[in-house]
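Hi P.,

Sorry for the delay on this. The queue was packed all week, but I finally got your sequence through. Input first:
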Amino acid sequence: MKNNDPKKQLTELKDTILARYDKLSKRLKQVARYLLDNSNNVAIDTASSIAEKLNIPPSTLIRFANEFGFNGFNEIKQIFRQYYMENTANYTERARLLRSSSDDILENPNDILKISSIVNSQALNQLQSYVTNEQLDNAINLIKQAENIYVIGVRRSFSLAVYVVYALRHLGIKANLLDGLGGMYIEQLNMCTNKDTIITISYAPYASEVLDIINEGTKLGAKLLTITDSQVSPLVAFSDVNFIVREAQLNGFRSQIASMSLIQSLIITLALDSANNQKLHK
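Then the structure:
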């Protein structure tokens, strides 16, 4: 990594890891996924604590580093650390301090609200840095050019899918919720064609129903717009446009704030575009 720009260094490293991901061993894939999805933690945590989180021996981290041409794992950490120091606000440290200061802190509703606000602020900041204008433009075009929109999100993603359909219908866009009533997910997609777009929302562990819809949609030639949580998510490989959203987590509870912010940004853009078109035709 000869480039001195921390962002470019990190991007190049992640691209290299992603390109070689499928050929890695099971243990090294575990390390790769953690690095791709937890940039701030890699920058802050020690190698031993990362190994403990992944339930792997520290030697696996060294083997991973060697696999990518580094002398040791600390050389990889340094790339993440440099980017973190230049681009990340102190939300992560504040959250860590709050979480570690007392075992009782998460029993007080006001403190729960405080730490929840901090970790969600961090997730929103990360969202802004991960999403590009090109991704947003491509997503908007997929929706605008589609004759019909089909949306699926199950379990905790269901509420997001419902909102997408609700908002698109308010804009006069033909949107259909794949809710699988009676177990008929595939049947609800029967009218889908290569002129339509399917919006899929799913996070680890990825819902089999969503994967089935993606496979069926691919066969039908539909365009796929995906919101998921990892560059190695099984949804990404099939998508025409994909957004990687890292939601905040608090004591095992995952937020939906970053995902909703992304969705509302798309909806607002579509609404403004519709309003501008109406002005032009008056």
